[in-house]
Structures are given as structure tokens and as C-alpha cells.
Specification:
The structure holds two protein chains of two kinds.
Chain A: E1 3-7, E2 11-12, E3 18-25, E4 35-41, E5 48-54, E6 59-61, E7 69-74, E8 79-84, E9 93-100, E10 111-114, E11 118-122
Parallel strand pairs in A: 2-11
Antiparallel strand pairs in A: 1-3, 3-8, 4-5, 4-9, 5-6, 7-8, 9-10, 9-11
Chain B: E1 4-7, E2 10-13, E3 18-25, E4 30-31, E5 36-37, E6 39-44, E7 51-55, E8 59-60, E9 68-73, E10 76-82, E11 90-96, E12 103-104, E13 108-112
Parallel strand pairs in B: 2-13
Antiparallel strand pairs in B: 1-3, 3-10, 4-5, 6-7, 6-11, 7-8, 9-10, 11-12, 11-13
The chains are: A mainly beta, B mainly beta.
Chain lengths: 124, 113
């Protein structure tokens, strides 16, 4: 079965770039059947969709973060990555990678598989 | 952006009783071409990622107990837990996937009375 695992630094300094990787096992990020997303959750708060990536290179980002976000893929490692630049304390959150379910053939679908999440703190 | 508003923020229910959570979207998430509501429900327990319970507003994800049910259409939706179990203590979120940006409700915390 497909599993996702986030990895990356747990502490990032203000104004620097947050970089996280999601490793996919039991499936392929190059599968045309699925979209792949990043979602975050500030401590004690709700969920915010960051954006998605499709194997063709198509991406779509939340306008609230669009100017600072890049999602990319490394098919050789079966991973997809998140870069968020110019971070502030407001970017402190648990970051999740997730698979879009694939029933619609588009990103417009539920998230059926999630990673365990990784906590990132922005602090000097 | 489609704003998702959940109510109540929290509720306490006795074991075996019914829990009802409401979710309202700021615009319809019913896609007329296929008559599907682009609405999902998730359960999140402390320290865990969200778990998909319901999609298309009323379709249970594989392996989800049938005490969880979803209903509603257009802008008003409900998640019902019939016969609450201790393991159902969690925060529940609705989410629309009708349009970008995909958005979530603020969550409803369910506790045991």
C-alpha cells in the first residue's frame, strides 16, 4: 500500500527557505492517476492547503502563498518537495504531504493518503 | 475562495448516542455536470494526520465504520456519528474540492460526555 513520509529540518530561521521532502513508497509519483499535495496545520489550528503537483509538471498553489511556494518532483527518488521562502513565525506548522484520491482524474478530489506530518518551527 | 464554516466548534456526546456536525460552504459545491457534491469529511486524532472518512458528501471511504454517515447538498452538509464510541473522540473537518484553493472548515471537536 502507498505510504508517504515527510522529512526536513525542524527549525528554520526567519527570512530563510523552508525545504521539505515527501518520499512515496508503494506507489509512483510519476503515476498519471494521482495528484500530490502539501497541506499545513499551525499548532492548535485548522488545515491549510498549500498546493499540488502533477507528474506532467502542472502545479497549482494557494494564492495566499503563491509568491513564496514551489512544489517539485524528483522521479528518480520517487519524492516530491516543498520550498517556502521568506518564512516568518506564521509559517510555523505541521506540514503534511498527501495524495489526491484519483477518482476524478484531477486535483479536485479528496485526500486519501497522508504522511504523518513534520513539525517546522520558524525561529531565530 | 470558498469559505467552509463548521458548527458547533465542539460538542460532548454520551457513549452510544448520536453526534451531528454541520458544515456550510459560502457557495455551492454541487457540480451540475455530474450531480456530485465536492465535499469530504476527515477525522483527526491527537498527534495523527487527518483520516478520510467521507467523500462526495456521502460516500464512505473503504474501511470506515458504517456509524459514520454524510449527507447534504449544495451548501449545507452534515456528518453524523450514530452510536458514538470512545475511539471517535477527535476533531472533524469538512473540506471542499470544488474549486481552487481547496479549503477546510475550522474543525469540530467531539468529546465524550
Amino acid at each position: 500500500q502507498v505510504q508517504l513520509q515527510e522529512s526536513g529540518p525542524g527549525l528554520v530561521k526567519p527570512s530563510e527557505t523552508l525545504s521539505l521532502t515527501c518520499t512515496v513508497s508503494g506507489g509512483s509519483v510519476s503515476s498519471g492517476s494521482y495528484y500530490w499535495s502539501w497541506i499545513r496545520q499551525p499548532p492548535g489550528k485548522g488545515l491549510e492547503w498549500i498546493g499540488y503537483f502533477y507528474y506532467s509538471g502542472s502545479t497549482n498553489y494557494n494564492p495566499s502563498l503563491k509568491s513564496r511556494v514551489t512544489i517539485s518532483v524528483d522521479t528518480s527518488k520517487n519524492q516530491f518537495s516543498l520550498k517556502l521562502n521568506s518564512v516568518t513565525a506564521a509559517d510555523t506548522a505541521v506540514y503534511y504531504c498527501a495524495r489526491v484520491k484519483g477518482t476524478t482524474g484531477s486535483y479536485r478530489d479528496a485526500f486519501d493518503i497522508w504522511g504523518q506530518g513534520t513539525m517546522v518551527t520558524v525561529s531565530s | 475562495d470558498i469559505v467552509m464554516t463548521q458548527s458547533p466548534d465542539s460538542l460532548a456526546v454520551s457513549l452510544g448516542e448520536r453526534a451531528t456536525i454541520n458544515c456550510k460552504s459560502s457557495q455551492s459545491v454541487l457540480y451540475s455536470s455530474n450531480n456530485k457534491n465536492y465535499l469530504a469529511w476527515y477525522q483527526q486524532k491527537p498527534g495523527q494526520p487527518p483520516k478520510l472518512l467521507i467523500y462526495w458528501a456521502s460516500t464512505r471511504e473503504s474501511g470506515v465504520p458504517d456509524r459514520f454517515s454524510g449527507s447534504g447538498s449544495g451548501t449545507d452538509f452534515t456528518l453524523t456519528v450514530t452510536g458514538l464510541q470512545a475511539e471517535d473522540v477527535a476533531v472533524y473537518y469538512c473540506q471542499q474540492y470544488y474549486s481552487s484553493p481547496l479549503t477546510f472548515g475550522g474543525g469540530t471537536k467531539v468529546e465524550i460526555k
